[in-house]
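Before surveying the methods themselves, let us examine one representative protein, written as a sequence plus integers encoding its fold.
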Amino acid sequence: MFNKKEFSKIYLVGFFLLLLIISIFTVIIFEKTTKNNNQKIITLNLDTKVEENLSWNFSATNTSMEVKIGQLYKIDFNVKNYGSIKSSGKAIYNVRPKLLKKYFVEIDCFCYKKQTLLPSEKSTYSITFYIDPKILSDLKPKDIKDINIYYTFLNT
């Protein structure tokens, strides 16, 4: 049969092959789960409103879009003062479901500043944002389907 030296060599070779196979499967599984997470897409729905006493039209160029987690996006909004006097407004926003607000990261937004339009003036405002990848570790990816964001211009 096998003597002790031969048995030890076979044992070491077998152990090495087992470690190699486990390492390869670990890399494959890691790459697959990472790729799936990076490909996670959420539907972003946008709704716009204007306070009654502000004579503005306000709308998003896209009311719905598919966004990849971690990718940077820019959305434009069209605004027009249909009133006969110069007026100013400031936008506020709300995110639903509320628990997703901390993952909606705005890098630049028109809503941080007071906006002023002359009578009949049109303008385009924008936001630049991304969905924080931490959302994948904090929540179950299957539970994340869409984010609804409501922008409202208030008279200032």
